[in-house]
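Please annotate the following for my students:
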Amino acid sequence: MQRPVGDACNLQPDTVTMVDIEQTISGADRPAWDEDDEPRREVVVVGAGDAGERLDRALAARFADLSRAYVQALIESGQVIVSDRTRKASYRLRLGERIELLIPPPAPSELLPEAIPLAIVYEDADVIVINKPAGMVVHPAPGHERGTVVNAILAHAPDVRINGSIRPGIVHRLDKDTSGLLIVARHERALAALVAQFQARRTLKKYLALLDGVIDPPEGTIDVPIGRDPRNRQRMAALAEGRPALSHFRVLERFAAHTYVEVRIESGRTHQIRVHGAFIGHPVTGDPLYGVGATSVAGVPLPHQFLHAAQLGLQLPSGHWREFVSPLPADLEAVLAGPRL
């Protein structure tokens, strides 16, 4: 499916060159980098298109890998010089002014790269789309410091940079035991563009799930807010005071004691499909937190909850709408192919 995409904004600097500005910034103003580190040096001459524009906005528009917030931090720390003077982020540029930037090398990261095989679905200079297996945590956390998606991405793409640090931009997350499509940003501008789409609900997100019990209507919508369970902080719950959450389901196949559904979510709350399924009395099959945690279905082993992120559609930072599809993993296909009870 193709969706209309507005004309991409293509801003190119009138003059952008790499020069040595060691003598432009005094030693007192220069940050204390290690001698082996090499700061990035850039010079921009203000053209007619940027005259009158704010300093921070103009630089963020010119350099795709620098977010406006990061540019503001560079300006505040004295690493942006306009015609031999430091200026505020709100300074309005004048035609012909010379802007000099000294961008520090990426800050060391405590995250460690690990050569873990990744199922790459799509990759370009801005993003990486992977097919995450069940059992793999997205981001390191206490008890899961190694073997995560982030560790694997750092080994696969050591050039990733977010806020001056060597780390990938996690746009959205999948639970450890949920498989399927996950998109990761390579740099700040890509991260900001993708997060804005997710927040504005301009993405397409479809999941495949097996639910306990038989659902009678062929389709339906669950419009129930979700928040942290006040009685168990490890769980989420359907709460009137929670954040809005909207899930649309469509029945694909009914069995004697289960229903196979496609679920399209507009919001992206933590555990949304799992909470909504439990709320209507049909928890995700195999879910140990919101269901009974079954380990088999009709005698066929079920090693993890039956929930798979099968389709993801969005506008890439390059301006093109793309949709990615991931088939059910073999272990979940085996469950559907088992005895019909």
User: Anything to note?
Assistant: Residues 1-37 have pLDDT under 50 and may be disordered. Residues 137 and 176 are 5 Å apart (CA to CA). The longest strand covers residues 204-212. The chain has six helices and 19 strands.
